[in-house]
Each structure stands twice: as structure tokens, then as C-alpha cells.
Amino acid sequence: MFLSQKKFLPTKYQLLKSYFFIRGIPQNGFVSIDVTNKCNLRCKHCYFFEQDVEEHELKSEEWYEKLIEMQKNKTIPFFACTWVGGEPLLRKNLIDKGRKLFKYNTVVTNGSFPIPDWKDVNFYVSIDGDEARHDLVRNKPGLYQKIKKTITESPVPVTVAFCINNLNKESIETCFHEWRNHPNVKNFCFDFYTPIDTLEDNLTLSWETRDALVDQLLALKKQYPQFLAIEPEVLDLMRSEKSKKVTDTCSFRYSASAFDPSGNRKAKCMLGDGADCDRCGCVVPFYLHSLSHKPTVIKNVFNKVFS
Q: Would the pTM of this model clear 0.70, i.e. be above it?
């Protein structure tokens, strides 16, 4: 049997998988920082304001000093940081300084503010459905059109991030195809809404619906493998019969760190104590599991080679 060479050309994802397979995930190698407790929106599904958020937030100099101290003490290896909030671009100067300490940086923004010209940063712009559903979920009429302007004028390509919930699940493909040919959108990613114990529950997807949506996303991935940024094995892990096995040993919870705006470490993850881990829809633990869980990695490699 002859196997095409193309199968063996490594992607960035495959290279990371090889590294983590051999070395394991570096302890606290992945960090999320809530840089501010302020935001110009109050979205229906947002976990942030359901936490016990302190009014106090570290000043920019205090944050930078804290990061430098952690670097000196080797508390975290400064591999990758996700800058969130609140709305992180409200503290653009802090991120601009802090990002230089990390090898990889991601900023997750609601798209209300101009995108900085940072070519070494991945910008994730949250868009949760078509115009009507997005503005409904985000509680802000006219926001969708504002985001279109932000992305069109962005000096760097961005990733669109769609959080699937009960209110927007019907608009997945409409939204996906609307942005697929936009010159400033390099790719598209999805995750599922994670229930928060103090939020209204009409957003939570049933397991049956979630499984059907995983099938829908896998079909999109097969048709547009480069544009949909999540690997098939990651999506497959988000199914009902596999999800709890991943979340019970959540790689983020045990190998990463999340900090609130006061510089305190969160007990679980960026979603806070109120998150229902058994129904987690955040893509991060599934992504990390697919990279580092040796039986899963071996099975996926075997399937790729002999498929």
C-alpha cells in the first residue's frame, strides 16, 4: 500500500501534538488573564459578570510587575496567553506591554473597538449568529454592523468565534458562509455555551442537539478544512459519550492558570466557579486533551494513517 506524502506533511496542530505527546503540557503553559472588569456590553451568555467580580483591578504597572515576578520565579513558563475580560481592548496599552512576555498571544474581543496592528497576535472576534440573533444574544442592536466595520478596517486578519447556544443554533451555516469569503477573516471557530449556575437556562443545548451540531460542524470541516479552525478529533471529543471523560480530567484546570482582574488565580478556569464542568462547551479542554492524552493521540494517528 502506498500512502500519499501529503498525509505526512505536519501542520502546526500536529507539531504541537508531537511535542506535548513527548513532553506533556508544560505546567501553567497556558494562561488566561481577565485584564479588566469593565465591558461596554452585557451579553446573555457571558460568564464574567456572573462571578464575584471585585471592583478593584490591578493597574497596568501592577500587572506588568506581577507577570515579571512570575517569570523570575518560574511560576508560569510564558508559553501562551489569552487576554480576555470584560472587554480586553479597553486596556490595550496593558496588553501591548504584557504580550511581549509570551511566545503566543490571543485577544478575545467583542469587536466594538478597532483592532490594533499587532501582527504576532491572534484576534478572536465574537460573532454569535446572523445579525438578528447576534444582536439579540449580545443585547446590543446595531452591534453586528459595527463589527463588520471593525473587521473590514482591521490591519490584521482575524478569527471569527461563534459560541453556539439555543438562541443561535439555527444560524450556524448562514453566519459561517457570510464570513467565509471576507478578506480579513482568516478562519472560523466554534464552541458550545457552558451553563453557568446563575444564568438563565434557556441557552443550554440538550445533549441530543449538541451531538447533531457536532455532526453538522464535522460536515463543514470536511468541506472547508482550512477555514474551519477546529480539528475533527477535537469536535468528536465534544460528543455526549466522550465529553465527561475529557472534562473530568480537564487539562486546563490541572495544567493551566486563569487570573481575574485583581491578579488572583481563579479556582477552576476562565469561566469561574459557577461553570457546569459536566456540560462544558469551551473548546480549550478538548483541544488540550487531543494534543496530550496519549491513548487519544495514538488512536487518532492510527486512524489518519490507515484511513
A: yes
